[in-house]
Amino acid sequence: MTSTANPPSPRASRAHTQRHHRRGWLFVAPFAVVFALTFLAPLVYAFGLSLFRDQAFFGGTVFVGLGNYTQALGDAKFWEAFLRVLLFLAVQVPIMLLLALVAAFAIDSARLHAAGFFRIVIFLPYAVPGVVAVLMWGFIYGDHFGLAADLNHLLGRDVVEPLSGNWALTSIGNIVTWEFVGYNMLIFYSALKVVPPDQIEAAAIDGAGALRTIVSVKLPAVRGAIVVATIFSIIGSFQLFNEPNILRVLVPNVITTNYTPNMYAYYLSFSGQQYNYSATVAIVMGVITAVIAYAVQLRGKRKEM
Amino acid sequence: MSLYLLYTLIPLVWLVISATKTQPDLLSTPGLSFGGVFALFDNIRQTFTYDNGVFLRWLGNTLLYVVVGAGGATILATAAGYGLAKYRFRGRQAVFAVVLGAIAVPATALAVPTFLLFSRLGLTDTPLAVIIPSLISPFGLYLIWVYATDAIPDEMMEAARIDGAGEIRIFLAVTLRQLVPGIVTVALFAVVSTWNNYFLPLIMLSDPNWFPLTVGLNQWSAQAIGAGAQPIYHLVITGSLLTIIPLVIAFLFLQRFWQSGLTAGSVKQ
């Protein structure tokens, strides 16, 4: 039946063009409709909200133009939260991605025994719900019956205090690293699998050692994947919420309601009833995130050339 | 490498061991050793019966959100990704640009405005408030788009057209089969993100009867702290273990499928 098919003539494909317009949209339309409702509408709505301000005493809202935005730019609580996630981003993301890269190279080099087993075990934490991961680490960090308590008991005094003011951010970084190294490793690993084996062979024939092969053959191959993983990690850092918010229950004095920008927006809305200002904070963070993600993408592209 | 393996596994081992302990043993024995009594089965029974079996209700809710939300997300992403890959139509570039842009917009930045909008529409505190936003997976669409471009030859679709098949029929009877590894990958990741979703249901729902497992477990945990609290750590721990197991099993069983789907997806990068 299919053997009778010839390559379509130009005329036939022109006839199909019209049909393509209609049929193409037929497949895309359901997604587009729900997308508009869940992405575009809230975006527009949030922007609308951010232009107004609640009149606490008189009731109703007044139009303030960009007033909420100037307030956000001068808001010490917002900047404190922002600088905290920036610090988090600068330290945690490189560590996590480097670990993931090393793991991917190690598994790909096939010199490792039971590479499949390693791959699935390292990936395993990704299948653990974030909430469960935080509850679990919260117990482990805790001084009631966690491993930190066991260690302190062993040492005879409180040496390890993961949830104290100085260590809380590091402890959160540890949870996020634990959760996502495997996921990033998988992104890198699938990019590595695409490297043609003859390229690696050629490198070996040219006398390249394992390290040399990684630097000149494999690393360029995963550059695109590194850019993608970096962008996802930047987005993740800027929207940090679950981990600090769940740990907050244990140490409300250390982890404040404006610990991250996202927590700030959340508490403005749900404890402070400041919906307009909360929408403004969300938009400011969204814009900053999108700009930085875009810049990383551009830099990644330029390097490829 | 082995050191990293330990780091990955120790918290999970701790969780499994802790789930076998009674509440007093949890507090009195070291984390990585077993307690005096092997209480795993008793803990499981208590988890399911505590507070009139609300855990079972949460499990049912989670399943509902996963089946409808992740299932719908997979269907929408598959159809749209396929449409974008195999048809040239006006507005195609625009759709693609907007969807890729959406990946960069933090989902949580949208959550509060989405809550306000949904509350206007009277959707908050209903299952729909969790399900509707779960229906969209921009990353899933991207994956299927790349996958379909690779896996489905135009000649195959032309041949079916010459045989007189309509476009929908071509999609369902001819091309869908080629997309299976891509679809399994998208479905699995949609299931994980819906099963693990916490922030969205947290803000959308206030009635515990609609909570998924994640929000419910955290409520149990928070309930253990504060004056006059009744700690139920052993139930939080056992419930956590029960929440993880289905996903781990799904990943292990579908391993070959989703990993080949991911690899194909990265060819085009």
UniProtKB/TrEMBL annotation, chain A:
Residues 82-296 form the ABC transmembrane type-1 domain. Its main location: membrane. It is a multi-pass membrane protein. The keyword Transmembrane applies. Keywords: Cell membrane, Membrane, Sugar transport, Transmembrane, Transmembrane helix, Transport. It is found in: Cell membrane. This is Multiple sugar transport system permease protein. It comes from Kutzneria kofuensis.
